[in-house]
Amino acid sequence: MKHPAGSILFAAFLAMFVCASIPAVAQQPCESLKSIKVPDITITAVTAGKPGFELPGQSGLMGNIPARKIPVPFCRIEAFAAPSSDSHIGIEVWLPDAANWNGKFLAAGNPGFIGSLSSGGLAEIMERGYVSAGTDTGHVDAAAGAGNQNAGFEWAIGHPEKWADWGHRAVHEMAVLTKKLAQSYYGKPIQHSYWNSCHNGGNQGLNEAQRYPDDFDGIVAGDPAFWISHLQPGSLYISWVALKDGVNGPGYVPPAKITMLNKAVIEACDAIDGLKDGLIEDPTKCKFDPASIQCKGADAPDCLTAGQVDTVKKIYAGAKFKDGTPIYTGFEPGSELNWNFMIEKEPFSVNINYFKGMVIQDPKWDFRTFDVDRDTRLGIERAGKYVDGNSPDLRAFKKAGGKLIIVSSWNSLALPPRQVQEYYKSVEKVMGGPAKTQDFARLFAVPGSGGCPGFMMNVEDFNAFDAMTRWVEKGEAPEKIIYSHRESGGAASGMGRAGKVYRTRPVCAYPKVSKYKGSGDINDAANFTCAAPGK
Ligand SMILES: [Ca+2]
Question: Which residues of 236-249 are buried (b: 16+ CB within 10 A; e: fewer)?
Answer without folding.
Answer: bbbbbbbbbeeeee
